[in-house]
Amino acid sequence: MKTLVTAIQKGGQGKTFVTCHLAFDAYERELRTVVLDLDLQGNASTTLGKFNCGFTASGLFKGDTKGLLKAVKEHSQGGLSLISADAALANIDSSMELAKAATALRECIAVLSEYYDLCLIDTAPALGKAMSAAVLASDYMLSPIELEAYSLQGMKLMNAQIDNLRKYNTKLKFLGMVPNKVDARKPRHVANLAALRAAYPDKVMPVSVGLRDSIAEALGTNIPVWEIKKTAARVATKEVRALAQHVFKKMEIAE
Fold first, then answer.
1. Rg for the chain (alpha carbons), in Å?
2. Which helix (H) or strand (E) holds 183?
3. CA 146 to chain centroid
4. Which end of the chain is less crowded, N or C, counting CB atoms within 10 A of the terminal residue's CB?
5. Using CA atoms, how far apart are residues 59 and 70, in angstroms rounded to an integer?
6. Residue 251 near residue 2, CB atoms below 8 Å
7. Rounded CA gap, 15 and 7, in Å?
8. What is the pLDDT of residues 83-99, one digit of tens each?
9. Which burial class, exposed, middle or buried, applies to 242 when counting CB atoms under 10 A from its CB (0-12, 13-18, 19+)?
10. Residue 221: CB partners within 8 Å, gap ≥ 6?
């Protein structure tokens, strides 16, 4: 099993959009996939609710491997499983040391690896212990980013944190930033994207996703964008499929 965490220290960048659509795409590729929703807001848990396996995310930090095993043993046969966010995630930062949280999460991921090909982790928009533990426990990471000044600042902070966390997780590969909600009609978006690629030539993905209303509609109705029956969704579908193909090729689970 390969594990990918989606993370950035800024809300509204598209972490849940990316996580859910990678999950939908992987499901169609018949990859046995499990999604861990570590964001207290639980948006991924809403969109992927019909795939809920009955185990909640806070249990991953309690080392409840027996409960996890029981929940996923049969559910994994369906091809896609969700470990949903729950209110107890709010206690992780105040009640646990990072080393203990990361160890517990690794142990649970090891259990999941017996039943799944791919693990996708959605995180909260702050570098708390849950996000840090996820980065420490993952094989790959990506960061969606809007092309606004505050978002670029958040990515700068995230890059510094990635470099620090990679000292403790040397296997972690940063797949790159995903330019998201790009509006080519806005000169600042065009300029910011050019500046981003110049500043991080090896860290910005060659694919991007535009500002597409159909994506928000898809997430709100708990389906992938390619199931939106509108002409406007075609461009979004093409962009999202290209993103998934790029990510899975980099992870060596697609040709």
1. 17
2. none
3. 15
4. C
5. 13
6. yes
7. 7
8. 999 999 999 988 899 99
9. middle
10. none
